[in-house]
Amino acid sequence: MEAKIKWVDGRMFVGETGSGHAIVMDGPPDHGGRNMGIRPMEMMLLGLGGCSSFDVVEILQKGRHDVSDCTTEVSGERVDAIPSVFSKIHLHFKVVGKGLKASAVERAVKLSAEKYCSAAIMLGKSVDITHSFEVLEG
């Protein structure tokens, strides 16, 4: 995997991945930015949530569960020091499907967290990561 980050101006950067996708990152005005893009640390939360969500949906689908939607809310707490690293991250999965059993969703979340999600396993070495979920009929 490769990525390239190009400085635009102020605190704005454009990141481009090896797969050809790009995203704008920027800082708040009090740090020289213009608030025109995602903060880099927010991207870490998005990466973790995306990786975990990918796993949960794939595990449920491979188990032939009827999943119609999955929304993952990710919240992180950072230490009040420099570097301002994450100390805690919580992922809450809202999984929608027909006849979905809580035990199946719980298993998928656990497998993602402990076996498949590279981002969670990597970050989990230094951050307290917790998970919760709810199953909605639909």
Automatic annotation (TrEMBL):
Pfam short name (any one): OsmC
Organism: Methylomarinum roseum
InterPro entries membership: KH_dom-like_a/b, OsmC/Ohr_fam, OsmC/Ohrsf
Entry coiled-coil feature ranges: none
UniProt name for this protein: OsmC family protein
